[in-house]
Write a structure and sequence with these properties.
With 334 residues, this protein is of the alpha/beta class. 37% of the residues lie in helices and 16% in strands. The mean pLDDT is 97.
Length: 334
């Protein structure tokens, strides 16, 4: 019998005894993907609308309308919500780092701003957002340095990370607090992330989990490297989540911009990859509490135009018409 949408199993239900299944959303996709989201996902993350620049574009001027609408969507559909993200080098407005004379703020001033932002944001969504990405992408991709060079690091110093977790814990003691990063399965960066998180755990800093962004492609990272990263982070005794999963159909060296559909080879490799990834995730069900995709279906992804301008991508389990792809069947049939 043909696989029509009526008889498609719910991804979230198939995985209910394993981990939550999430999707990143925005104001447009909660409309255009509403039915798909409601059926297959039991958690959402705001793709952009809870980032610093969107929540506090000017000092003391908080703009919660968009974020509130996403939170209301979660509530209406009985979904959990993850918070993304409190302290990051990107999408943070310039005012945060300068005073009214245009001079760089002091360490104490910046710590105060960090704390004020967290208090206001986390207390607003207390009881609704169960888990926050407290610090995003603080580690370098290359080279010997551990800490990415950012205004936070420059002005506060290396302890900005532990301060962030301490303030977050004070703002909402019930929230689960995550460190989140990409290229997390690359062995070199993995060790740096491990070292950073271990130092936090050893100091007794309130941290509960590591978020593996999981922006992956057809060949990278290898399954062995993913497994090694899971083992390494889990050895810290923390919970893990895939926080931003997508599987680009382009290999790193493939810069084609002329495709209007994925090739047969791409689809085959992506199907196999999703099957292998979810097999691995099921094996580690004790450490994973959620798997969140950075989108839901191929009609919308941040990977359209990134990192190659004018290129479309097809990274998810559902196609542009919200129909399950071959990869979906492999993920739910086990
Ligand atoms: C993620 N960064 C961010 O966490 C998320 O907030 C954003 O929407 C998309 C991806 C990954 C990343 C990047 O932004 C730039 C270069 C490499 C990786």
């Amino acid at each position: 019998m043909a696989k029509t949408s009526v008889e498609v199993s719910s991804l979230q239900k198939v995985y209910e005894n394993y981990f939550n299944i999430g999707a990143a959303v925005n104001l447009r996709t909660i409309e255009t993907q509403q039915n798909l989201l409601a059926k297959h996902f039991n958690s959402i993350t705001a793709e952009n609308d809870m980032k610093f620049e969107l929540l506090q574009p000017e000092e003391g001027k908080f703009t919660f309308e968009r974020a509130d609408k996403l939170a209301a969507f979660a509530q209406t559909h009985g979904m959990k919500m993850r918070g993304h993200t409190l302290v990051w080098h990107n999408q943070t407005p310039d005012w945060v780092f300068v005073n009214s004379n245009g001079e760089q703020v002091t360490r104490d001033q910046l710590l105060q701003r960090m704390k004020d932002h967290m208090n206001t944001v986390m207390q607003r969504y207390k009881g609704q957002i169960y888990c926050w990405d407290v610090v995003n992408e603080a580690v370098t991709d290359e080279g010997p340095e551990l800490y990415r060079k950012t205004n936070w690091l420059d002005i506060i110093g290396e302890d900005y990370i532990e301060k962030a977790f301490e303030f977050a814990h004070a703002a909402d003691p019930d929230a689960l607090l995550f460190y989140n990063d990409y290229n997390e399965s690359n062995p070199g960066k993995r060790e740096k992330i491990y070292q950073l998180v271990k130092s936090l755990v050893d100091k007794g800093v309130p941290i509960h989990g590591v978020g593996l962004q999981a922006h992956w492609n057809l060949t990278n990272p290898s399954l062995e490297d993913i497994r090694a990263a899971i083992e390494r982070y889990a050895s810290l005794g923390l919970k893990l989540q895939l926080t931003e999963l997508d599987i680009s159909v382009f290999k790193h060296e493939d810069k084609r911009t002329d495709l209007t559909n994925p090739t047969t080879e791409m689809i085959e490799l992506q199907t196999q990859r999703y099957q292998q990834v979810f097999e691995l995730l099921r094996e580690y069900r004790e450490v994973f509490t959620a798997v969140t995709f950075w989108g839901a279906a191929d009609d919308y992804t941040w990977l359209n135009d990134f990192p190659v301008r004018g290129r479309k991508n097809w990274p998810f389990l559902f196609d542009e018409n919200h129909q399950p792809k071959e990869a979906f069947w492999k993920v739910i049939n086990f």
